Amino acid sequence: MDSETGKILTDFVMMVGLLRREMKHNNEFERYEGRFARIEQKFTTLAEELSQHDLELTKALRTAFEQPARVAAFKNAAHQKELKAKKTEGDPEGN
Known about the structure:
Blueprint: H1 3-25, H2 33-51, H3 55-66, H4 68-90
Helix pairs in contact: 1-3, 1-4, 2-3, 3-4
């Protein structure tokens, strides 16, 4: 799988993980617990299949699913760093 597709898949898995986390926090998880169990089962199957070809992507996907807030925080920090670098590039004096 190419790196761009891997990033998109990781973002998708992170969003599912964030939804699951938010529903648990808002005490709405029990209503959809069966659906999330099936999602997790399918995700595990996907991760096992990918682990045969791309171990790094598998690790990234598992982290995105199990710790989505952590992944989102690192992604946001990287984005902020990129924005700061672009701003510095465009105006070397910082104005």
